[in-house]
Amino acid sequence: MDNQLLTMLPLWYVVFLLSLTCHEAGHAFAAYRGGDPTAYLGGQVSLNPIPHVAREPIGTVLVPIVSFFLLGGGWMIGWASAPYDPNWEDRYPRRAAMMAFAGPLANLVLLTVGFVALKIGIAAGLWQSVPVFEGRLPPLDRTVMTLGEAGGADALGRFFSILMSLNLILFMFNLIPMPPMDGASILAGLFSAARRFRDWLMAAPMGSLLGLIVAWQLFPVILRPAYQGLIWALNQ
Hints:
This protein is mainly α. Helices cover about 70% and strands about 5% of the residues. It is globular and about 55 Å long. Helix 1 (about 5-35) runs antiparallel to helix 4, helix 7 (about 150-175) crosses helix 10 and helix 8 (about 180-190) crosses helix 9 (about 190-205).
């Protein structure tokens, strides 16, 4: 087994679990503030990953670690969830839309933290941004490369690279307006027609899988220019 792969696993998993925890805590907090205590009573209005892992151990532990090795260490996938009261959503659709948006918003905050940290490190001479050649995106943990000696600076650069890149992906993917992504629930809270479409597709056999397949096909089209834009901004 590749020693570098084993070395990168803890770093990847820390960033991945942090990102999922903040995403679901954002959902839970927005629902609680909007009058639905369901997730709060489950302990999920928290940045402690334990209640989130306890609710979805397969999606937060098993699948991320297995996918990391199957995909060669350049990627990690998984999922988590926060419960909510459907009756509350029926009564307060706009509050439910805010709940749906709060998860991607948390990823946007983490993305910004990663970007600002990388920008400061580049300005300080710690790192240099990796350019995008012929539309090919750099690995998520190699958005920057260390200048001079490696060691702790290299690990820190990789951490913030993964934090920025992974949260860009989570932010944009979850905003795709296809069920079961958050984007569909945001629209469902704002427009009754979108709510009917979402509920119809989610109730259909394999409806969630169909939505995921469509979103997965659309995603590279919107991700590439966004990622390239981030790399360009790091170099300015």
